[in-house]
């Protein structure tokens, strides 16, 4: 009997323990944020990053190899087309020209010499013919002279060709001499000067790219060269508006238009993704921009004009259907299925299922994920419009 | 007096343990039933808990517990590693529980064998003491039933893993906060383990010629040693 009482007490204690430990969820209505369905336009945009470059720029490289004798300009200097920028040591090039001129003159002399010889042979031939006709000279002598005349004619032709050859060599030497002096190919700004007096420049060949000497650029027009991910490229069209955020002006975008879309995907350095090069021409600006600056861009790809819209976090997905939690007047929520239009990073256009001014639950995500039909909620931060 | 069969022993172990231990002396095979019951209760309670609980909630709780002193970078790493393993946690808990059960009982059986040498008449082998150990752990079945009852009657799915130690000294009496030096120790010490020590003491008395005091001493000694060492570590 006593044992039975102990057992009953133990069981009672255990049950009491379980009951006292009972786990209850928070009975309070969850606090949620709400937003109103608004009317307005949404711009869907694509983000890309890239660098600023000058619209027109010419990289100067050398076609000849030689030592730099004189550099006449400095980086950042403005130059006019045709201005002399730098000069190589011309001694060797000038000697080459002189040598070729001498070879040319020697060729001229040889032609004269050959012509004189031909005249002489023809005179002898004429005399021999007269003697031969009257039978005073042998046939063999006469024919030898004929032969010598033909050879002399051929010799003149060969000398003329040698002369042409020498003339061409002279042209090449003169060209090389002229290329040892570098002139500005266009008017603009010297964006970079990478060469100093005394250094040796190397001519570019098939496998070796020649020394970079200078970069002449037109600073009046600046481009943003963007790397657009291959998944986004279908949305990019010519003349689309883009906002460019340079690192130096993070909150004041520059505006521009898409002027060129790359036609082949390139491997992005540092990532495995492929991207296309898209060029955006920046509108004229008073703010100073420099080539090489990094920038990011928002390219507006499509715009939904004057539709209903919501913050994007309000819209949730259930299988293939989209829905939102609509807040009723009695602070209960109702699941409303909607059809969605385009979306930007922050907003979602609603084409069907809601009306302007309705209150929609937008967060926080955790309590929202647990909402059920007709649950009571507390509104955490009434929007400014809500309190009006 | 002794239990007549394994099933009655399973009831007797809770209401008159000496009967169960006396019966067990001649029928070692009963211990398989005890092991099966303990393991099944462990598996079912663990599975029920994890299938009802919100894994995201458990994840958040564990991250908060693991990253008390962590920097933001470390927290991120902890979160990543935990997110990867959260879905398999139930299987780790079940597998680890059963594995732990077998290992701890193996150690205890060795210990019981050693102390039984104090009594020259006791001639039980290692296997017998291994079975004995499971019978002394039978309160775990009640503990698991309590967990199942708590999970099924809970009105939320935000269940904390602390639920497993619902009968701990900490949750019943002390109420220490996470981070307190004695928190983990007091969470692990629970009334069912004390009950288990009592059962072991009764069992030792039945199986050997030890006095009651000696039986209690030998039954409690492993836990006492562990908790004393733990206390010293906690105080350092």
Automatic annotation (TrEMBL), chain B:
Q: Which residues form the Yip1 domain?
A: 12-233
Q: Does the keyword Transmembrane helix apply?
A: yes
Q: Which keywords label this protein?
A: Membrane, Transmembrane, Transmembrane helix
InterPro entries from the xrefs? Answer: Yip1_dom (IPR006977)
Q: Name one Pfam family in it.
A: Yip1
Where in the cell is the protein located? Answer: Membrane
Query: What is the name of the protein in this document?
Result: YIP1 family protein
